[in-house]
């Protein structure tokens, strides 16, 4: 009989604005929520548009590789329509966290729900923009085709993209300012251009939740602004967004809430509540002393 075993520890949610207590590593985390493993098709995922409420909810999530914990009892929730930034140094577990939310990496303990169900929910509902370094650019494919691939999740098996799918792909390319490169090979573009194309691909999918892994790493200031403006516009229409970054400069400007991650949750809350020396030192180490144009929301 399958039964969810509650973890012995208190998976207290980190209250907005609070800096988390140092993690207690003295315990061995062995408990597994069985429903998180083997997505055996037994879940009945509803595909209704999300109602205002919780889009993503993690409780006491531990995850890692080859027995090594990378995420340590991570708990937080994201409301529908929020734009949440996940900030932390390299290797702090940001990508792993996105993969857990996307259902691409199973946690060892704790629970994850996305729109009320364990991931993966209906894949069409999640748009994922990977780190551009993780993509094989030798693959011979045009910019337009990369974006059109975003529609494939919405097509039935073996169904060809329609004129409408093509028009939507072109519209998305236009939105990210990449129409002129539609016929270029994806591998020939600059990092910023590639990033824009991947954002367009995720947008044509019309997801309810968008996960972006370092969307502005190696991207020039113009592309950064273009990407975030576009995301903010979709957010106003109800899309929930979680973006990782190690760039502090965008925190106060774009994010509703910020999750400070260094294997465990250091703090979670609005930039006004959380962006301070204490949180940054706990996240990045004490060498981070300067808060960039800090607490005020700058003009976009
Ligand atoms: P971040 O996105 O914050 O840089 P990651 O989640 O990518 O952090 O990685 C966290 C840690 O997990 C790093 O030490 C990394 O080397 C390790 N790691 C990530 N992916 C794998 C993997 N597929 N196999 C083994 N270790 C991994």
Describe this structure in words.
- This protein is α/β, with parallel strands linked by helices.
- The protein has one domain: Rossmann fold (3-Layer(aba) Sandwich).
- It is built from 8 helices and 9 strands.
- The protein has helices at residues 94-102, 143-149, 163-175, 191-204, 221-236, 251-254, 271-274, 277-284; strands spanning 54-65, 68-79, 83-87, 109-114, 126-129, 209-212, 240-245, 257-262, 264-269.
- The strands form 2 sheets. Strands 5-6-7-3-8-9 form a 6-stranded mixed β-sheet, sandwiched between helices. Strands 2-1-4 form a 3-stranded antiparallel β-sheet, covered by helices on one side.
- Strand 1 (54-65) and strand 2 (68-79) form a beta hairpin.
- The protein is globular, with a radius of gyration of 19 Å.
- The protein starts with 53 loop residues before the first strand and ends in a 16-residue tail after the last helix.
- Bound molecules: adenosine-5'-diphosphate.
- The site of adenosine-5'-diphosphate (ADP) has 10 residues, from helix 1.
Key attributes of the depicted protein:
alpha/beta; six-stranded mixed β-sheet; three-stranded antiparallel β-sheet; Rossmann fold; 8 helices; 300 residues; binds adenosine-5'-diphosphate
Write the layout of secondary structure elements.
Layout: E1 54-65, E2 68-79, E3 83-87, H1 94-102, E4 109-114, E5 126-129, H2 143-149, H3 163-175, H4 191-204, E6 209-212, H5 221-236, E7 240-245, H6 251-254, E8 257-262, E9 264-269, H7 271-274, H8 277-284
Parallel strand pairs: 3-7, 3-8, 5-6, 6-7
Antiparallel strand pairs: 1-2, 1-4, 8-9
Bound molecules: adenosine-5'-diphosphate.
């Amino acid at each position: 009989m399958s039964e969810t075993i509650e973890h012995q520890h208190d998976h207290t949610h980190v209250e907005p604005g609070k800096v988390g207590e140092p993690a207690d590593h003295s315990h061995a985390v062995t408990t597994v929520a069985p429903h998180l493993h083997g997505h055996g098709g037994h879940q009945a995922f509803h595909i209704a548009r999300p109602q205002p409420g919780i889009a993503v909810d993690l409780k006491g999530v531990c995850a890692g590789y080859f027995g090594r914990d990378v995420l340590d009892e991570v708990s937080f929730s994201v409301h529908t329509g929020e734009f949440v930034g996940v900030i932390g140094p390299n290797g702090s577990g940001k990508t792993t966290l996105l993969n857990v939310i996307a259902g691409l990496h199973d946690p060892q303990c704790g629970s994850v729900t996305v729109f009320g169900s364990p991931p993966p929910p209906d894949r069409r509902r999640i748009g994922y923009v990977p780190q551009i370094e993780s993509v094989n650019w030798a693959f011979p494919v045009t910019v337009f085709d990369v974006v059109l691939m975003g529609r494939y999740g919405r097509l039935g098996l073996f169904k060809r993209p329609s004129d409408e799918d093509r028009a939507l792909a072109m519209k998305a390319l236009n939105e990210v300012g990449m129409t002129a490169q539609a016929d270029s090979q994806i591998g020939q573009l600059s990092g910023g251009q590639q990033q824009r194309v991947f954002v367009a691909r995720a947008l044509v999918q019309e997801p309810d939740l968008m996960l972006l892994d370092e969307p502005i790493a190696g991207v020039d200031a113009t592309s950064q602004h273009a990407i975030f403006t576009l995301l903010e516009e979709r957010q106003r229409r109800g899309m929930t967004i979680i973006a990782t970054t190690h760039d502090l400069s965008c925190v106060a400007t774009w994010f509703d809430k910020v999750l400070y991650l260094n294997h465990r949750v250091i703090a979670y809350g609005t930039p006004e509540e959380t962006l301070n020396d204490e949180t940054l030192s706990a996240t990045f180490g004490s060498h981070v002393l300067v808060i960039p144009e800090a607490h005020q929301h700058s003009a976009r």
